């Protein structure tokens, strides 16, 4: 008979093995699924996971997708460490794209060297504003952060759609819901000649290291860790939950906003309705896959970016619907949570039935 | 004790249990006769819990035999233990507050047992009268006091016709009067032939009620004795070896200027089963220990939380430190003004279980260790290792996780950390609860030394002996009311015991002047 037994203490091995196990189980699930719809599992996995890294162009595209995923995931890791259940990275990303793009359009005839920094800053401030509202509602009225941040994702999305249909629409754009192309002065420089890799990935990696530094070296980061590990101890020590909540939420908002504005001033070059294919949501999975560690998020974001790339390639090369990416993400989160269950629990095998 | 009965109730031979890195029980042999009240003594970590868990079928021993009523048995689960007639009352009760007494008891009975008993409520009432337990089967558990709940737990064992009752520190939560009541019940049970295994840290209780005692140290039986021919001091010596100096006579002090005030503090309960604080007034002087006695759940937790600031409701005018209102400040700001706390829960509140001792030093002691917002881990490491050495905290070093320490050692660490901040006012709850004799002595001396340096100490404890030992002035709480404050020399255990039961409450409202006595 198999029983589930609580472990006397959490398994530290399982904490690290869990994401790997979850990925393996997701791939096995994928193989079964691909066989069921009559595609070769081996080919499908090759296209999904290997092909994205097969040539320099694809690797470049992978980094383009990794940037926003990592920026959002780093912020979320900090939030989740402090028990702030921010599901609003998507909305904060869109708000950053919207606010920053409005600034970029203001600079459309400018050649000032300050145009780009100001545009990026505008994006970050917009993202912060978007995370500030649910934070205020939570701290003032004790509203549920999960619900309000999800609602603000939709508000941001429809605000952005309204903007590209209205005030920010390109007057010469034949009525398409898009802004004008941004001026060169507000475009993020690319890192290599033949690739679309831009400064966004640099921002992302720097932000991961900054977050790591804050968590491990600063008193503020220490307080965040205590809050996440043991809330009664944090209250006993007199750490201000308000201050910490504001810090992690504004930090996450700023990074998500930067992710948004880096998309529109980077690979896209204008404000369009579909800025993000759900980066803000995928970042939740990335944060957990990276064990809520900012540096772990780097590897996890890379994996997730490969999956995004692979989804595109699978559609082009094998006619597999692109929805397979969302499904893989969902299955991955499912297996990850299932595997995490075994950090605190274990299976006990016994021959005799006990009462 | 029925001396003519020669078959022992329980005999343990060579019980051995090895945990990773720790030999919890080392060839333990022990015999219990029917009707015998047997004390199991030892410091924390001596192996008492492991041994009783082995008897109750929670822990499987690596080696050794258990002989029950002359027959060898294998107790692999608590239900087998219960079928044999072994009952256990744990230190922390396992009752559902929202169910009645009778429903709670029904939950742990098998269908066969229920059929045999028939009308459970009737049986409970019958047993209650027979043993003077005073347990009403229809009452809801949340409406019962701690003492009553304990009697429900004992009733739970009696209903199953218990032949061996194991009690883990049963008196730590009771008033002196309730303790007397419990001892009455235990004596009746013993006369009827029920054996009792009694774990306690309170040695005078052991000498009062137990027929025999087995003393464990480091997992081994080091001694057995007949408690009523020993003194608490001589038993303590057996428990800890030679280093115990159980000296009852510490010098009492007067205290100088008043430093901390609680004025007219009334506060509704925050939680459904919490206690409402009723017009609490107290002044704490520099250089004194003020002890507050009381049975758990009479407002101590609420008082502690509002004083520390963990309860963040604004009581600006009700608390003052050095004539400065502090009731509106949050916990961190109060710490900066010179307040420190030792909470009841060591692990999970006083220390973060998964963090190292270094990190747990920083938890409340950041002064001098944070520069420009960055933590100076090197200095903390040095400070922590000095702290560990000074208070003789047994651990692998400053990188040990808090949860790897035993309760007493963690308490010494927390105590040292709080004292190390040179607080003006230290609020200390149950400082030696569940701590072994050696550590308790170290903690007492640390508190007295802090007092003699001029700090004011508010000591909240359920251990009335400890309060008499340490406190310069005393009071008791009952149902959210605070009794008058009196000098320890001018009161006695009876008066404090009556105050713990609330006899002062009516007087207080009739003669408010008396509060200043």
Q: Would you summarize the structure shown here?
A:
Chain A: It is a multi-pass membrane protein. The complex is a heterodimer of chains A (355) and B (517). Chain A contains 13 helices and two strands, in the order E-H-H-H-H-H-H-H-H-H-H-H-H-H-E.
Structure description:
Chain B: Residues 10-243, 260-504 form the ABC transporter domain. Chain B: This is Nucleoside ABC transporter ATP-binding protein. The complex is a heterodimer of chains A (355) and B (517). By secondary structure, chain A is an all-alpha fold. In chain A, 70% of the residues lie in helices and 3% in strands. Chain A has a single domain (40-319), classed as ABC transporter involved in vitamin B12 uptake, BtuC (Orthogonal Bundle), CATH 1.10.3470. Chain A has a two-stranded antiparallel sheet with strand order 1-2. The termini of chain A are close together. The longest helix of chain B has 16 residues, at 176-191. The A-B interface holds A 9, 217-220, 222, 225-226, 229-230, 232-233, 235-240, 354-355 and B 76-77, 79, 308-310, 330-335, 341, 343, 345, 348-355, 359, 362-364, 366, 370, 373-375, 403.
Backbone shape of chain A: globular
> What are the low-pLDDT stretches of chain B, counting only 5+ consecutive residues below 50?
243-247, 511-517
| Residue share in helix of chain B | 25-40%
- Distance linking N and C termini of chain B: 48 Å
Domain ABC transporter (chain B): 10-243, 260-504
Pfam family, one (chain B): ABC_tran
Protein name (chain B): Nucleoside ABC transporter ATP-binding protein
GO molecular function (chain B): ATP binding; ATP hydrolysis activity
């Amino acid at each position: 008979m198999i029983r589930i037994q609580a472990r006397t203490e959490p398994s530290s091995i399982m904490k690290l093995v869990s994401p790997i196990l979850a990925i393996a189980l997701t791939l096995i699930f994928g193989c079964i699924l691909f066989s069921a719809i009559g595609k070769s599992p081996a080919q499908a996995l090759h296209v999904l996971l290997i092909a994205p890294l097969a040539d320099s162009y694809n690797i470049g595209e992978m980094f383009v997708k990794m940037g926003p995923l990592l920026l959002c995931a780093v912020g979320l890791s900090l939030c989740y460490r402090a028990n702030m259940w921010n599901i609003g990275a998507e909305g904060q990303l869109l708000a950053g794209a919207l606010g920053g793009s409005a600034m970029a359009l203001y600079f459309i005839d400018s050649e000032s060297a300050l145009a780009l920094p100001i545009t990026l800053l505008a994006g970050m401030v917009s993202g912060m504003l978007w995370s500030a509202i649910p934070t205020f509602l939570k701290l003032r009225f004790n509203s549920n952060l999960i619900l309000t941040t999800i609602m603000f994702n939709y508000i941001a999305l429809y605000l952005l759609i309204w903007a590209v249909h209205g005030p920010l629409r390109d007057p010469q754009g034949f009525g398409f819901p898009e802004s004008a192309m941004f001026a060169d002065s507000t475009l993020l420089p690319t890192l290599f000649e033949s690739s679309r890799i831009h400064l966004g990935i640099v921002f992302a990696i720097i932000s991961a290291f900054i977050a790591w530094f804050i968590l491990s070296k600063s008193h503020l980061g220490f307080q965040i860790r205590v809050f996440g590990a043991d809330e009664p101890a944090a209250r006993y020590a007199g750490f201000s939950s308000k201050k910490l909540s504001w810090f992690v939420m504004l930090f996450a908002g700023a990074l998500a906003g930067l992710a948004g504005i880096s998309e529109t001033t980077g690979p896209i070059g204008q404000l369009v309705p579909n800025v993000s294919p759900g980066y803000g949501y995928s970042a939740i999975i990335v944060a957990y896959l990276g064990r809520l560690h900012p540096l772990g998020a780097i590897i996890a974001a890379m994996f997730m970016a490969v999956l995004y790339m692979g989804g595109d390639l699978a559609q082009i090369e094998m006619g597999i619907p692109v929805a397979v990416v969302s499904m893989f993400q969902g299955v991955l989160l499912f297996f990850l949570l299932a595997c995490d269950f075994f950090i605190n629990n274990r299976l006990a095998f016994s021959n005799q039935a006990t009462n | 004790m029925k001396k003519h009965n020669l078959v022992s109730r329980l005999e343990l031979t060579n019980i051995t249990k090895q945990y990773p890195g720790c030999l919890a029980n080392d060839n333990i042999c022990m015999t219990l006769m029917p009707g015998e009240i047997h004390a199991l003594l030892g410091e924390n970590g001596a192996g008492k819990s492991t041994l009783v868990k082995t008897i109750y079928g929670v822990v499987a021993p690596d080696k050794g035999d258990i002989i029950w009523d002359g027959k060898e048995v294998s107790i692999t689960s608590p239900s087998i233990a219960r079928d044999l007639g072994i009952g256990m009352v744990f230190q922390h009760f396992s009752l559902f507050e929202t169910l009645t007494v009778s429903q709670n008891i029904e939950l742990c009975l098998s269908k066969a047992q229920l059929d045999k008993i028939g009308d459970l409520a009737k049986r409970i009432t019958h047993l209650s009268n027979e043993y003077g337990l005073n347990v009403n089967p229809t009452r809801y558990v949340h409406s019962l006091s701690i003492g009553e709940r304990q009697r429900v737990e004992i009733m739970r064992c009696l209903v199953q016709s218990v032949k061996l009752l194991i009690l883990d520190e049963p008196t730590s939560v009771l008033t002196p009067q309730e303790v007397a009541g419990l001892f009455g019940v235990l004596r009746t049970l013993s006369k009827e032939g029920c054996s009792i295994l009694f774990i306690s840290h309170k040695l005078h209780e052991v000498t009062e009620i137990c027929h025999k005692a087995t003393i464990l140290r480091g997992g081994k039986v080091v001694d057995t004795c007949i408690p009523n021919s020993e003194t608490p001091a001589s038993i303590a010596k057996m428990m800890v070896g030679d280093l115990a100096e159980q000296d009852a006579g510490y010098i009492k002090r007067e205290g100088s200027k008043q430093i901390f005030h609680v004025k007219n503090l009334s506060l509704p309960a925050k939680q459904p089963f919490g206690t409402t604080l009723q017009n609490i007034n107290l002044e704490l002087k520099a250089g004194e220990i003020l002890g507050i006695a009381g049975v758990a759940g009479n407002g101590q937790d609420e008082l502690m939380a509002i004083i520390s600031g963990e309860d963040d409701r604004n009581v600006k005018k009700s608390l003052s430190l050095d004539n400065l209102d502090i009731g509106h400040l949050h916990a961190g700001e109060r710490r900066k003004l010179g307040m420190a706390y030792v909470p009841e829960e060591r692990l999970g509140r006083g220390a973060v279980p998964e963090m190292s001792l270094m990190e747990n030093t920083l938890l409340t002691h950041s002064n001098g260790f944070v520069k420009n917002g960055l933590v100076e881990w090197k200095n903390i490491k040095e400070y922590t290792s000095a702290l560990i050495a000074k208070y003789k905290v047994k651990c692998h070093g400053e990188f040990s996780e808090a949860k790897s320490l035993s309760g007493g050692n963690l308490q010494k660490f927390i105590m040292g950390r709080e004292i190390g901040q040179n607080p003006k006012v230290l609020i200390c709850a149950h400082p030696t609860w569940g701590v072994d004799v050696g550590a308790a002595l170290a903690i007492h001396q640390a508190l007295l030394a802090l007092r003699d340096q001029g700090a004011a100490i508010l000591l909240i404890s359920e251990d009335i002996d400890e309060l008499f030992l340490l406190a310069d002035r005393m009071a008791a709480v009952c149902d959210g009311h605070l009794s008058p404050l009196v000098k320890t020399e001018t009161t006695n255990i009876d008066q404090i015991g009556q105050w713990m039961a609330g006899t002062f409450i009516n007087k207080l409202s009739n003669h408010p002047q008396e509060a200043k006595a």
